[in-house]
Amino acid sequence: MPYEVRFSKIAFKDVQELTPRLRKKLRALIEGQLAHNPYVGKRLVGDLAGFYSLRLSFKDRIVYSVDEAQKIIYIHRTRTHYGE
Fold first, then answer.
1. Residue 80 confidence class, pLDDT cut points 50, 70, 90
2. Reduced 3-state DSSP string for the chain
3. Three-state SS for 2?
4. Tens-place pLDDT, residues 24-48
5. Element at 27 (helix H, strand E)
6. How many CB atoms lie under 10 A from the CB of residue 25?
7. CA-closest candidate to residue 74, choices 63, 60, 64
8. Which residue, of 18, 37, 50, 67, has the greatest Cβ tally within 10 A?
9. Which residues sit opposite 67 in a β-bridge?
């Protein structure tokens, strides 16, 4: 059974700023990979320990966490990590 996916307010705002092509790619990544295997992303360390990152484009990443008990993926950001 696939995981439920929820967006934070900031991530929802990030999605609105993505190009239509990247929004389509985001949807495909969530439905095709992430919802079925949330551990496909890279495990983050340091200040972001407990979070995972999945590449959306050359500069944009999906940053998310997983609640295994409730089978929910929380998407926290869907934008660049380069400060732009």
1. confident
2. CCCEEEECHHHHHHHHHCCHHHHHHHHHHHHHHHCCCHHHCEECCHHHCCCEEEECCCCEEEEEEEECCCCEEEEEECCECCCC
3. coil
4. 999 999 999 999 999 999 999 999 8
5. helix 20-29
6. 15
7. 64
8. 18
9. 72
